Each structure stands twice: as structure tokens, then as C-alpha cells.
Amino acid sequence: MKLNGKTFHLKGKVQNYAWGGYSFLPALLGFDNIDNKPCAEYWMGAHPSAASIISDDTTSVALNELIASNPAETITSKVFEQFGELPYLFKILDVKDMLSIQVHPTKTEAAKGFDAEQAAGIPINAPHRNYKDRNHKPEVMVALSEFWLLHGFKQKDDLMQTLIEVQEFNVLMPLFKKGGYKGLYQMVMEMDQVYVDNMLAPLVKRELRRKAHNELTKHDAGWWVAKLFEGKDEVVNIDKGVFSIYFFNIVKAEAGEAVFQGAGVPHAYLEGQNVELMANSDNVLRGGLTPKHIDVPELLKHTLFEGVKPNVMKGNDIGNHAVYYPCPVPDFGIHKISLQGNSHEATASSLEIMIAVEGGAVINSSRNIVLKQGESVAILPGETYKIEASGKCVLYKAFVP
Q1: Which segments constitute the Phosphomannose isomerase type I catalytic domain (predicted)?
Q2: Fold: same for 12-150+252-302 and 316-399
Q3: In whole angstroms, what is the distance from residue 367 CA to residue 301 CA?
Q4: Is 118 helix (H, G, I), strand (E, B) or coil?
Q5: DSSP class of residue 84?
């Protein structure tokens, strides 16, 4: 399986999850959404369930197949020895409706959990399966618009203030004082549904009224709780994730700002568009805002029970018209390249995937490629290239550091 050169056009795959928007990805990628399907994610990578296709304009091949046929040339022997695959998955997301609350395990715990479920004979696609692979799933997101997310528990004083201010939560104060974050979270996650509804129904109805009267902003937990229930006939079977909207930090990132999510930190995307880069894994322990399986004991085992001060990164200017967002993992790194009638020069040290999110450019390398907005390229290790833009062009690049 041989392609000419080391710089290739790359075509990713759109995922039509229900929470996605209808127009952002079609506009970015340049296709008509004639079936009016929700377009949630655009995947660029070698994940076997939705591998990208790369092409030298005469021959096309799935990226995972190309890597398998020649790992040393495509991802380097070092990366193959360490990870056995391309260790990252690169995405563009359009979040219209809130995603499920998630916690990701450490690499060690993921391997233990996967092996235990394999030994128990649980099918890999079973809805109650927690571990789909033996890998961890750290991730970083860089906002493409104003972006809202939940990230980690509030710090102690802030969470106590929430329990005081929300009258329905006053009864939980002694529990938090005595049992800390774990005692509080375990209590609400194990609560019988009838008690959940009794406690939260008056709160949800109040937040719906307050949002309707413009008394809330997106900085308020109540705004998101009301969004969740708007248009529903009755407030019943209330998702336990509603507690988390009050207990976690609500974070706003402006375009170009980034947030890293490490193992154990509970989080959920609320609204907006972003570039997301993650380890090549599908291990998710859910904590609500979803009809999918929630394994509370497993969730509690892997959740980081401490207050978090969210770190919204502006990125470090590293020269060469590039900004670097530091991520404390060996699986991936990300650069934002911003050009305005100038150029960026580099040599790929790993397999790099790049997407133009604004404007276009020419990539001069062993194969010269014209890159338009929404188009992506894959660049093999050792390739020296120069990106030139006559006007404004913004690109995001994923690589193995």
C-alpha cells in the first residue's frame, strides 16, 4: 500500500449524534445537510469505527490501514512501540444540546476495568459495558466560539454557598460538612428517583419561571437546568445530573481559549463549537444528563473528589505564527496556527493532522496542496513543509509531542 509523497488530503467522518447542531459543520465542511440530520462531530484520525480516508489524488486508503501496513513510516517506530497505534483522535464539535456528564479513568484503571469486563464475558458493544478499550481518555478542547462547559467540583466555599442559596439543598449541608465531596455526591447519585423528583421538581419549576422572566444568565446553573426542561409537558423522572449542574464549575471559554480534562475530573459540554483532541479511547463513565447506562459504584471509584479551579488556557506563543496549549500527556499535542499574508514552516516529527477552520492556504512540501476552509491534511513524519496564506487563515494541528 503505497502513496506518493508525505503530505495528503484527509477526509474525516461526520457523526450524527442527537445533541449536534444542523448548520455549523455543513457550513465549515462545505456540504448540504439535505436530510436535516444533527451534525455533532467531525472525526479526523485512525479510530477503527470511523477512520479517515487519506489520498494522494490518485490512490485513497483508510488511515488505520495505512498505519497498520507500515507503522514505522506513518507514525514512527517510537510511537508504535509506545502506543501500538495513532494515539490521538482529532475532532470538531458543534454542541447544541448538553452532553452527558463524564469521568474518564486513568490508564492503569482502564486496563484493569477492561480486563475484568472481558473476563466476565460482557460483549464489547453491550449497553452496560463501561470499558471499550485499555486506554485512558484525557482530552483538550479549544473553543471556536463562545463555549460553555461544566468542569470539576466547585471549590469548598463556593459549593457551600450553593447549598445555602438553593433552599432545596439546605438539607445536604450537614452531609457535605461531614462527608465532604464524596459523601455529598454519593448521596445524590444513589438517591431513589422518588426523592430526586421530590427535591428537584420545585427547583426546576422555579428555574423555568426565572429563565422565562430573563432573571438568569448562562453563568447561572438555573439557566442550564431550565434549558434542559423547556418545552417538556411535565417535570418528572428528573435526571440526577441536575445536581451536578449546581455542584460543578460552569466555565465559559472564548474563541481560542482551551480547557484540558484529565482523568477523574467530572465534566460536560453545554453549548458552542470547539476543536477537541483526545487519546484514542472510548472509555466513559457517565454521571447523568443521559439516557445511557450509569454505573454509580464505578463512577464513584474514578471521580476526583476535590474542588477544582478551572484553568482556561490562552495558549503560549511559540513564534512562527503558532500558539501551543500545554497538555500533561504523551498522547497528543495541539497548535493553533494563525496566518495573515505570511507563512509557517515546520518539519513533522510525528503523524500530523491539520484542519483549516478559517480561510485557506497553500502547503508546499513533497506534494504541494491547496487547503481550503474545512479541509484537512495528514503529514507524515520527517516531512518539511511551508504553509503560505495570502489572506487570513486559521489552522489547528494535532501531533504526538
Answers
A1: 8-155
A2: yes
A3: 50
A4: helix
A5: S
Q: Where are the domains of the chain?
A: 12-150+252-302, 157-246, 316-399
What's the count of helices (H) and strands (E) in the chain, helices before strands?
Answer: 11, 23
What single-letter amino acid sits at 23? S
CA distance 334 to 51: 20
- Domain 12-150+252-302 sits in which CATH superfamily? Jelly Rolls (2.60.120.10)
Query: Quick one: DSSP state of residue 367?
Result: S
The active-site residue, picked from 129, 209, 210, 286, is 286
C-alpha to C-alpha distances, 29 to 10, 24, 32, 53, 370, nearest whole angstrom = 12, 9, 9, 15, 15
- Return d(Cα 324, Cα 260) in angstroms, integer: 13
All cell numbers assigned to 74: 506513518
Beta-carbon contacts of residue 312 (< 8 Å; ≥ 6 apart)? 251, 253, 257, 258, 259
User: Residue 160 half-sphere exposure, CB side, CA atoms within 13 Å?
Assistant: 9
Residue 115: strand pairing partners: none
Distance of CA 222 to the CA centre of its chain: 23
Side-chain-side CA neighbours of residue 212 (13 Å): 9
**Model-wide pTM > 0.90:** yes
Closest CA to 291 of 39, 101, 95, 105: 101
What is the dihedral angle through the alpha carbons of 29, 34, 37, 38, rounded to the nearest 10 degrees? 40
**Which residue stretches of 34-121 are H helix?**
63-69, 71-75, 77-83, 107-119
For residues 210 and 218, give the distance between their C-alpha atoms in angstroms, rounded to a whole number.
12
Q: Which of 129, 100, 96, 105 is nearest to 240 (CA)?
A: 100
Angle subtended at Cα 157 by Cα 156 and Cα 161, rounded to the nearest 5 degrees:
120
Are 354 and 397 in contact by the 8 Å Cβ rule? The answer is yes
| Assigned superfamily of 316-399 | Jelly Rolls (2.60.120.10)
Angle between helices 173-190 and 156-165 (to 10 degrees): 80
Contact 32, 26 (CB under 8 A): yes
The candidate with the shortest Cα–Cα distance to 229, out of 201, 245, 200, 208, is: 208
Query: For residues 57 and 226, what is the distance between their CA atoms, to the nearest angstrom?
Result: 50
206 is catalytic: no
Please, what sign has the CA dihedral across residues 260, 266, 272, 274?
Answer: positive
